[in-house]
What we know:
- A hairpin with a 2-residue loop joins strand 1 and strand 2 (30-38).
- Helix content is 6%, strand content 34%.
- A four-stranded antiparallel beta sheet has the order 1-2-3-4, with no helix packed on it.
- The protein is built from one helix and four strands, in the order H-E-E-E-E.
- The radius of gyration is 15 Å and the shape is extended.
- The protein has one domain (18-67).
- The chain has 71 residues and is mostly beta strands.
Amino acid sequence: MLYTVLPLEEVLEGFELDPQPTVQLSWGGIPVEAEPLGSFQARVVRVLSTDPRHYLEPHVQPGTIIHGQIV
């Protein structure tokens, strides 16, 4: 069950689209999942660490654009 005040169309918007490919990498010693954007950039999708302190680091918050060699 899903209880929400939002219209169902808004909740399910983009549900049928294929997800973007992601890569797992270590950024600043913190394992993250990122979406490559090209030209040595990626957007952090989620933090994969088991250390709770890593979730407070501003440089790996979801949505953050990271720059550098993305392998």
